[in-house]
Structures are given as structure tokens and as C-alpha cells.
């Protein structure tokens, strides 16, 4: 349906015949993926879902979106060999797309509206977390004498101490690190266009100062804060690190520190929230610090129960 390189602009040629059997349907579908969906990650996920459903319909001889009935969507959902959250995401994508086409009078009803997805409920997230000692081991294993090492230490510290998503961290500019009330603060642009400001923990403050001084980028306020490095060198470029760059760096640093847990970028957000709560922090304050709409979302990052389970399982005296 949409090639990865086309996802930002979505030219008309990329719309399949199923979803765009005529000019009006084609225009309406393009509007959905460009004007209606602004988040690039959501756009990519919904585009993949639309492409997969279009391919499925083609196998059954359905060539016009107006021929799709609820039974077709139900059968498609039933045949998906995916985890429940992924199935629910695919169904949500189809519901949103068909709603848009119904409002645009391309089709009379939304065939996905009446289809129920699988039941799925979680009280604890699956994001791998680290203990406080593991985070210290990870940070101490980084060569703080090298510029890249200072960058990596400051980046990891930003995710741990501000509970920031990796996307917000990679979007940071030099001017987003500023002084207020005699402390260093960071200004984060989180998902959904939300501006979020957080004071720095004293360790993060020290790491950011060291990195900014060593990198010599203070006179480039509009430039990216965390910059990519030239291959196998200790020299930074003027380009920001991508999320893939950050992930590779984390995996490399974790392996060097002897950490067996398969952590990723989001692990530091979950680790920071858990450690904050373990040290007497309040869930509603953690919600504000993490910039969550609901405390239920913050609760998914609370992994204090893991320690309780570990302590209790040792009571099995065999």
C-alpha cells in the first residue's frame, strides 16, 4: 500500500485499487493518511494495517472497498496470527479509516464498527527494567573521558531521570537545556505535541554540563543536543541521533556492562518510574513527571511488584 519512503508524503500512486476505486475514494484516503493522521508513527502503523487488509481482500476477490462487509473484517481479524494488542491495533486502524471514508460518503457504513477484537487486559507492562545497581554499573562502564562516552552517559541519564521517551530525547536541541532557579532544566517535546519541562537530577545536571562543555555546542542553540558520531571516531557530526542509533548504542553499552536483560530505549523510562516509586514517590506525581494523561498508564511502568515476587518465591523451601 505505502512504501516506507512514501509514508510522509503519500503520493496518489501509492493508494491501492481496493481503497481507491475512483478519484473521490483516492482523494479521501490520501486525506486520511496526511491531513487526519499527524503522528508519523501512527501513520506508519495504520498504513501497514491498511496494506495488509488490502492484500487479504485481494486474495478473496474483493476489489472495491464498498464491497467490504462486517463478516469480511471479522474473518480477517480471526485469521490474524498476531498477539492480541497487535490485532486490536489493526482493527483500530481499519475502524478509523472506514469512519473517514463513511464521513466522506465513499461508503455507506463502517464494516469494522461492529467487529469485536480480542479481549486483552494488563496491569503491568512488559518493558524490561533494570535495578538501580544495574543502571549504575551501566553508567560506570562508559568511558567518561571520551566525547561519545559523555554523550551516551548524558543521554541515558536524560531518559532515566526525566522519564522521557526516546523520541523526545532525540528531538532535544541545545537551547532546550537551560537554567532556571539556579538549576538545569530540560524542555521536552513529547508525543501529541505536548511541551513538557523537567528539572534535572543533580547527576544528570553534572553529566549534561560535562557533555556540553566537551562537545563545544553551546554556541549552536538551534542545533541538536545529542548528535551522531562519525564511524569509529570520537567526533560528533551536526546531525541528530536517530532512535535506531540510540537503540544500538544502548544494546552495545549493555553488553559491555555485562547486563543480560534485553533492554531497549523504553526500559529507562520504566526503570526511572519504578525507582522513584520505590523511594517513596507518589504515583500521581510520577504521572505528572512522565507526562501521562492517566495514572493507569503510569501504573503499567510500576514494577515494584517484581521485587515482592522475587522475595516471596525464595520462601519455597525445597
From TrEMBL:
Q: Name one Pfam family in it.
A: Phage_int_SAM_1
Query: Where do the Tyr recombinase domain residues begin and end?
Result: 125-315
The source's superkingdom equals Bacteria
Every copy of the Core-binding (CB) domain together lies at 24-102
Q: Which UniProt keywords apply?
A: DNA integration, DNA recombination, DNA-binding
Task: Please give a single GO biological process term from the UniProt record.
Answer: DNA integration
Q: GO MF annotations for this entry?
A: DNA binding
Alphabetical list of InterPro entries matching this protein: CB, DNA_brk_join_enz, Integrase-like_cat_sf, Integrase_catalytic, Integrase_recombinase_N, Integrase_SAM-like_N, Tyrosine_recombinase_XerCD
Protein name, please?
Putative site specific integrase
Name the species this protein comes from: Methylibium petroleiphilum (strain ATCC BAA-1232 / LMG 22953 / PM1)
Amino acid at each position: 500500500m505505502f512504501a516506507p519512503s512514501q509514508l510522509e508524503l503519500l503520493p496518489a500512486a501509492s493508494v491501492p485499487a481496493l481503497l481507491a476505486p475512483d478519484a473521490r475514494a483516492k482523494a479521501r484516503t490520501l486525506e486520511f493518511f496526511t491531513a487526519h493522521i499527524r503522528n508519523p508513527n501512527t501513520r506508519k502503523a495504520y498504513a501497514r494495517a491498511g496494506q495488509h487488509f488490502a492484500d487479504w481482500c485481494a486474495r478473496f476477490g474483493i476489489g472495491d472497498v464498498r464491497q467490504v462487509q462486517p463478516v469480511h473484517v471479522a474473518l480477517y481479524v480471526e485469521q490474524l496470527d498476531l498477539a492480541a494488542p497487535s490485532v486490536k491495533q489493526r482493527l483500530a486502524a481499519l475502524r478509523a479509516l472506514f469512519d473517514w471514508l463513511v464521513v466522506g460518503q465513499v461508503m455507506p457504513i463502517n464494516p469494522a464498527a461492529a467487529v469485536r477484537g480480542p479481549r486483552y487486559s494488563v496491569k503491568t507492562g512488559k518493558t524490561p527494567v533494570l535495578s538501580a545497581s544495574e543502571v549504575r554499573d551501566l553508567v560506570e562502564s562508559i568511558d567518561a573521558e571520551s566525547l561519545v562516552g559523555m554523550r551516551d552517559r548524558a543521554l541515558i541519564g536524560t531518559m532515566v531521570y526525566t522519564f522521557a521517551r526516546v523520541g523526545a530525547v532525540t528531538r532535544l536541541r541545545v537551547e532546550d537545556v537551560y537554567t532556571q532557579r539556579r538549576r538545569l532544566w530540560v524542555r521536552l517535546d513529547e508525543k501529541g505535541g505536548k511541551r513538557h519541562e523537567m528539572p534535572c537530577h543533580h547527576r544528570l545536571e553534572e553529566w549534561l554540563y560535562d557533555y556540553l562543555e566537551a562537545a563545544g555546542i553551546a554556541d549552536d542553540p538551534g542545533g541538536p543536543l545529542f548528535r551522531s558520531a562519525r564511524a569509529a571516531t570520537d567526533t560528533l557530526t551536526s546531525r541528530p541521533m536517530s532512535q535506531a542509533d540510540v537503540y544500538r548504542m544502548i544494546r552495545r553499552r549493555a553488553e559491555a556492562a555485562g547486563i543480560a536483560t534485553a533492554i531497549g530505549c523504553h526500559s529507562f523510562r520504566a526503570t526511572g518510574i519504578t525507582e522513584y516509586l520505590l523511594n517513596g514517590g507518589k504515583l500521581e506525581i510520577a504521572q505528572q513527571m512522565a507526562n501521562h494523561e492517566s495514572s493507569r498508564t503510569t501504573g503499567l511502568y510500576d514494577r515494584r511488584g517484581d521485587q515482592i515476587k522475587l522475595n516471596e518465591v525464595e520462601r519455597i523451601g525445597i
